[in-house]
Design brief:
alpha+beta, Immunoglobulin-like, 3 helices, 17% helix, binds calcium ion
């Protein structure tokens, strides 16, 4: 009876913690119980804009170009606090980054450049996520929609036109 009570308490604890309790019956009728728990960091949500200045977040998988992603500064998040060495977009690290008022709201946002061939996206992907940490160790993440299209020469040209050098010439940048 006491043993059953112990198992019930263990089960309730496992459910409360979001873990998993599994059992294995050994020869001879002995049960082995295993508790597993995956630690998930609590990440704050931030606003990102894939391909700023374009409402269609087109990505041509297989392109040799780059895709720009902006982390936007909001009332409760300063994009300049982002430690860019920790950033991953669809599993890829940034090639380059700079501070720029992407959304024209009077504050600096973080603009990151990623090599399209590094992205871990599928032709069926409809969303991509950027993750990272701020300099004080706060975990953050943001997602935006994507439209994956076959690579056509004119689309590749448009995508590759968003190179760091092109944007640098077009906008006043604070290089990081
Ligand atoms: Ca966009
Ligand atoms: Ca801004």
């Amino acid at each position: 009876m006491r043993r059953h009570l112990y198992v019930i308490v263990l089960l309730l604890t496992a459910v409360a913690l979001g873990g998993f309790l599994s059992s294995h019956l050994h020869p001879g009728g002995r049960y082995e119980w295993r508790f597993s728990y995956t630690i998930r960091p609590l990440c704050r949500e931030v606003e990102i804009d894939i391909r700023p200045w374009s409402p269609l977040n087109i990505i041509c998988l297989g392109s040799h170009g780059v895709v720009l992603v902006a982390v936007l500064t909001t009332d409760d998040f300063d994009a300049s606090d982002v430690n860019t060495t920790t950033v991953l977009f669809a599993g890829a690290p940034p090639l380059w980054s700079c501070l720029l008022d992407v959304d024209r709201e009077g504050d600096l946002d973080l603009l990151l450049f990623f090599r399209i061939r590094d992205l871990q996206l599928e032709p069926s992907s409809t969303e991509a996520t950027l993750t990272g940490y701020t300099y004080d160790g706060t975990c953050f993440q943001g997602s935006d929609s994507v439209m994956i299209v076959p690579c056509r020469p004119e689309v590749m040209e448009t995508t590759e036109g968003s190179s760091p050098e092109t944007v640098s010439q077009r906008e006043g940048l604070v290089t990081r």
